[in-house]
């Protein structure tokens, strides 16, 4: 990946998914909008809340309990204690901890929401949240425990608590007590003001941060799967005319046309082609643009859903200091992210299924048009004891099956929670976590199929009548050869598969974008 040189500014400017990705990967500096007018607008919300408290106004989560306890009045002498109680009783997350990349994305998403100036928080809170990103102070956030309406309450309680000097953070590569890191950096832990804990927690930042990361991975996976398909067309001596421009003009889905154009470029389709084994290839080659094109066409609306959520004030209540109104609503509801992530995991799992079918063709002498069984490169006198990619194909089948199994939509499994106050919830965070898992599995399928495709291309090149590879594929084959030599005698491929996954995570190969 290239370094994102422009600083990412939190404030009135909208962020893109690429900004969040740059912050998550520590590739961009950050800054908080600092002009006097903006700071005054942020401060005005907190001041308006203070004025309401002086008048003993009724404000949800400020002078009332939370959730179904909104009917319980909180005396003014206890209002200051209420924020700490909110993040304390929500400290019950379980499961794995979000990794550093995901945690930075969560912090960025929450800060961007609060920067709209309608959450009733102080400038100092924005500054400290920004400082966490700037100094890479990462709250340790368990990934399980959110139903995605009333926001990501439990996971975001770990953000609120660590800003207040409680619980644990990752800092300088070490797991530390938040209070000790505050002291080391010369910071006073925040004492959260009325509404500030609620503003931090009652939003969609976890699901949105994960969605940004999932989108970026899916975008690269689309390009990689297209390149793998091109390699497999060569390895299987397929028919490149399946991707003819005139053919796709007759069914002009834009993403489908784009994938076909990428394949034409990779295969140098205008060049003379080898004799064909089949007039029509099997669907995993012939229909690759139709499968991958659905993902390509979906990325635009997925981006729209994610970026609107990212650039929204998604907490409750909304504080309109200009009109001096408190607007009670449901902007913490993560329905758009839930639907986007449920859709994305289905789109991505179909990519896994496509590549798995291509690999099945590669290893099978009934369908691979003369390649050795299981793509073994062993000489004839040792062929009987070598099994090449046999186990890799079995593993790929397992990863694909698990990816397909995880496409069950999370958003339809709403549960009535919290004394039937949260009686319809989004499950957006579970959907986002599912999407990340499906991406992990599909990237494993892609890594296996890429190495197998590269082996198939190498085997074809050993023939006396071998034709030169088209330029794009020749460059890819040469790049892969630096890390992944041909499999001649059987060897354990786990290390190479893991290296390939690392290369995919780094978006190491420049592909079609």
UniProtKB/TrEMBL annotation:
<dbReference type="GO" id="GO:0044550">
    <property type="term" value="P:secondary metabolite biosynthetic process"/>
</dbReference>
<dbReference type="InterPro" id="IPR024083">
    <property type="entry name" value="Fumarase/histidase_N"/>
</dbReference>
<keyword id="KW-0456">Lyase</keyword>
<dbReference type="InterPro" id="IPR001106">
    <property type="entry name" value="Aromatic_Lyase"/>
</dbReference>
<dbReference type="InterPro" id="IPR008948">
    <property type="entry name" value="L-Aspartase-like"/>
</dbReference>
<protein>
    <recommendedName>
        <fullName>tyrosine ammonia-lyase</fullName>
        <ecNumber>4.3.1.23</ecNumber>
    </recommendedName>
</protein>
<dbReference type="Pfam" id="PF00221">
    <property type="entry name" value="Lyase_aromatic"/>
</dbReference>
<dbReference type="InterPro" id="IPR022313">
    <property type="entry name" value="Phe/His_NH3-lyase_AS"/>
</dbReference>
<dbReference type="GO" id="GO:0052883">
    <property type="term" value="F:tyrosine ammonia-lyase activity"/>
</dbReference>
